[in-house]
Amino acid sequence: MKSIVSKIALSFVLLIIYSCKTETKQEIAVSSANTVRYAKGFSIENYTGYSVVTVKNPWPKASKTYTYILQEKDGVLPDSLKQNPIIRIPIQTIVVTSTTHIPSLEMLDEENSLIGFPNLNYISSEKVRARIDAGKVKELGNNKTLNTEVILDLQPNIIIGYGIDNNNPTLDNLQKSGLKVMLNGDWNEETALGKTEWIKFFGALYGKQKQADELFTKIEEDFLKTIEIAKLATSTPTILAGDMFEDRWYLPKGTSWGSLLLKQANGNYLWQETSGTGSLSLSFETVFEKGKNAAFWITSGQFSSLKEMTDSNPHYAQFDAFTNKNVYSFSGKKGKTGGILYYELAPNRPDIVLKDLVKIMHPELLAGYEPFFFEKLR
After folding, report:
1. DSSP characters over 171-223
2. 94 neighbors 113 (Cβ within 8 angstroms)
3. Model confidence over 253-295: pLDDT tens digits?
């Protein structure tokens, strides 16, 4: 009798263990591993009926992680996830707050879902400007002080916000009013492909992850191919960047995406040994001492001609790159209301930026290619 009871008990234990193993296998079978490979600020994990989007670094040194649940129609969520913000997908209407978000919508053929944006004049996209002119995209004021009345009237499915710190009371109030808010940290990525990969973030919202993956893969392939072409260069010219704003010279820090692009184009950016992803703020004298003999000068978007530069600061003419007319800027391509296209599109299209830089420094490597963003100042 004792032996029979023991066998029954053992069978019961084995059944429980087997059932647990089976459930674990089923759970693994209906999920996919994170496909985000370059971006450090977010991840996407897909399950049957829903996805989990985790945003880890929406601003420098952020200590909090944000988890969002994207629920498909009829998707069933486990109780353990229901305390997180839940967004029903695919979304139909959206408010974004940075021009860097606009190209992702356009590339995914979802620009018609945009119904509100702060500072509409900054938008350069022709398709979105046509919607603005038709009154289909509403002005929302400034990013820090969004017009909550207009947004509450619009009732977008999702608001994509960003912040430079953990202080945006407007977004907090919108969430308290029942609207869905997600943070986007594309601007805080350190690499070009890391920035671009945020298109997958938007792809998940529209139920277009496959399309977003394909778009990113094409950009990635072209980008990596151009890096290999740049390695064939027989020289590594010195590069000066930025220019004066008020009484300081601003130029990229050495581990910023702009600095890394110059290096990947086989250029010797003179401040590439500095650390940080933002901008250096230096005196004119400091920059002149180090950058006077630089072969090329990539300026900011302030100036559209050499004369504009010397009108602003006559001392610019003392640099070799200025004397040799090797000064380049992305200021020439602007939207209808003055927004500079580079600031909007470049983070999504580093493949084009890199080709431009290679063409500038090593023109023999890209015969027949005409730079898209950059032009030589005259």
Report:
1. HHHHHHTT--EEE--GGG-SSHHHHHTTHHHHHHHTT-HHHHHHHHHHHHHHH
2. yes
3. 999 999 999 999 999 999 999 988 889 999 999 999 999 999 9
